[in-house]
């Protein structure tokens, strides 16, 4: 098991409390606004974790397929949200999603992209599963220099340059691509006492034709 996989298996029970220290509900509300979510439609939440985005979508009346490679994180969500009804859980990789082509109205991925091995491959997969007219919305970190996020939280990438993210979106054929500030920082203090990070968060969106 890689460091990142081990990390999320071990922090799953504490993730929601940790998440509250890192960023607020503003992040998912901004993502939902960028997608223009409509009750009754079907969304996929990629790297769904303990359910931060999924729970927001369910409360707005959407149906959700929650995908994550960590069994422990999805178990944590199941404990809170339960099974059946509007939620389905699937173990899977962002770069080879366990969903059919053109099968969902929205795809969300909050703070997942900086953990995947290949961000462009993950974005291609997220675009593949969108129905025509569907929207992909990714919320993640701008490029930063806080190395302890890599060593202590197993981040694979130290954030992203927005032009790269925009190019990965357009290369998949998505249109109306926009990247804006969420208007909030992701904040974390290092365990080693060697730093405190405050990293701006972007919201990137695009529509499938
Ligand atoms: C920082 S957490 C964010 C969880 C949730 N989206 C939230 O906002 O609280 C990242 C999540 O992405 C998952 N993840 C990381 N790499 C992944 C991959 N390649 N495929 C699927 N899930 C992945 C992790 O297991 C973890 O649950």
Commentary on this structure:
- By secondary structure, the chain is α/β, with parallel strands linked by helices.
- 34% of the residues lie in helices and 30% in strands.
- It has 8 helices and 7 strands.
- It has helices at 3-11, 15-22, 26-35, 52-59, 71-81, 119-128, 148-153, 162-171, and strands at residues 42-46, 63-68, 87-91, 104-110, 130-141, 175-189, 196-207.
- The protein has a 7-stranded mixed beta sheet.
- The N and C termini lie far apart (38 Å).
- The mean pLDDT is 96.
Output the keywords.
209 residues, 30% strand, binds S-adenosylmethionine
Distance between the termini: 38 Å
| Structural class by secondary-structure content | alpha/beta
Strand order of the largest sheet: 3-2-1-4-5-7-6
**Roughly how many Å is the radius of gyration?**
16 Å
The SSE order reads HHHEHEHEEHEHHEE
For the sheet with most strands, the description reads:
7 strands, mixed
Overall shape: it is: globular
Distinct compounds present: S-adenosylmethionine
Number of helices: 8
How many DSSP-defined strands? Answer: 7
Nearest-integer average pLDDT = 96
The amount of helix comes to 25-40%
Strand content: 25-35%
Which residue ranges are poorly predicted, with pLDDT under 50 across at least 5 consecutive positions? none
């Amino acid at each position: 098991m890689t460091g990142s996989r081990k990390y999320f298996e071990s922090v799953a029970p504490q993730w929601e409390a940790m998440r509250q220290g890192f960023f607020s509900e503003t992040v998912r509300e901004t993502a939902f606004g960028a997608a223009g979510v409509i009750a009754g439609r079907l969304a996929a939440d990629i790297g769904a974790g303990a359910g931060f985005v999924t729970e927001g979508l369910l409360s707005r009346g959407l149906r959700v397929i929650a995908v994550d490679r960590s069994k422990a994180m999805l178990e944590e969500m199941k404990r809170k949200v339960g099974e059946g009804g509007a939620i389905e859980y699937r173990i899977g990789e962002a770069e080879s999603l366990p969903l059919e082509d053109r099968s969902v109205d929205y795809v969300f991925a909050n703070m997942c992209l900086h953990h995947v091995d290949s961000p462009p491959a993950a974005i291609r997969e997220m675009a593949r599963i969108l129905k025509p007219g569907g929207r992909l919305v990714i919320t993640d970190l701008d490029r930063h220099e806080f190395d302890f996020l890599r060593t202590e939280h197993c981040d694979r990438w130290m954030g992203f340059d927005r032009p790269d993210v925009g190019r990965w979106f357009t290369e998949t054929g998505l249109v109306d691509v926009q990247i804006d500030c969420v208007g909030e920082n992701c904040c974390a203090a290092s365990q080693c006492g060697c730093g405190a990070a405050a990293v701006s968060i972007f919201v990137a969106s695009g529509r499938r034709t």
